[in-house]
């Protein structure tokens, strides 16, 4: 897009089976954007909805619709939205009307304090008891492993500077950890309390499967934060530790055999010593291979984990 025609704000919304919410959400977003008095675009990503969400979206204007061939998940939907958005600032929010579009100008105002991304904090959440407990447990684990400096990384309501997503690809359930990923790259992350509304239509898409995937992706972010550009430090250190243990065990075995004349046929120490030594060597080799892969990662382009069927503009 020509720089002169570049919108100030892009609003990206992932939508999956939100037939009863998309029209009202679009109306609220449009009202907020018009009140800003600057150029904007609204992007809804239809993440393989099986209800009438797409048909509802086709009746709305102005709106850009990214239509997936099937359900690829919220992370893929946001990634597609980020790659399509042209605005200087990109705002994201859920399609279930629980995030309040009226908070977007406040988040942008907070960004003017020098932040590259400002994340919403649903301090007073209107969710079910189990979802609240799971979120609190995940937040504590996230703080222990990656400590992204915010209370509510799972809140989709965020605003970003456009440059945050240059060269960033999202996979799995990584949308929860975007602030952490950006912080790793040196972007400044802020937070602001936002309104959170009870769901009035549709059903929650959160289940235990997403929770498990989130924990696994959290481990990936932890590894990325600590060892992405130096995996040999992790695997090599583990390998050297095991080799050191095997050497000490071997010396102990040799002492027992040579000086105390103790038979080793009834002990597993010999097998464990050899096992630890070989596993240690394997860890070092694996670290070297991971180091090579890490360098290749930074040197080549990656393909996306989703496929867009069409992009419609109303």
Describe the 3D structure.
The protein has 314 residues and is of the alpha/beta class. The chain folds into two domains: 226 residues, Alpha-Beta Complex (Spore Coat Polysaccharide Biosynthesis Protein SpsA, Chain A), CATH 3.90.550; 69 residues. It is built from nine helices and eight strands. The protein has an eight-stranded mixed sheet, sandwiched between helices. Helix 5 runs parallel beside helix 7. The longest helix is centred in the last third of the chain and has 31 residues. It starts with 8 loop residues before the first strand and ends with a strand. The model has no long low-confidence stretch (mean pLDDT 84).
Topology summary:
Blueprint: E1 9-15, H1 22-36, E2 40-46, H2 53-57, E3 64-68, H3 74-84, E4 89-92, H4 104-111, E5 117-121, H5 129-145, E6 158-161, H6 178-184, E7 189-193, H7 208-227, H8 231-259, H9 269-299, E8 308-313
Parallel strand pairs: 1-2, 1-4, 2-3, 5-7
Antiparallel strand pairs: 3-8, 4-6, 5-6
Helix pairs in contact: 5-7, 8-9
How would you summarize this macromolecular structure in one to three sentences?
With 314 residues, the protein is of the alpha/beta class. It has helices at residues 22-36, 53-57, 74-84, 104-111, 129-145, 178-184, 208-227, 231-259, 269-299; strands spanning 9-15, 40-46, 64-68, 89-92, 117-121, 158-161, 189-193, 308-313. It starts with 8 loop residues before the first strand and ends with a strand.
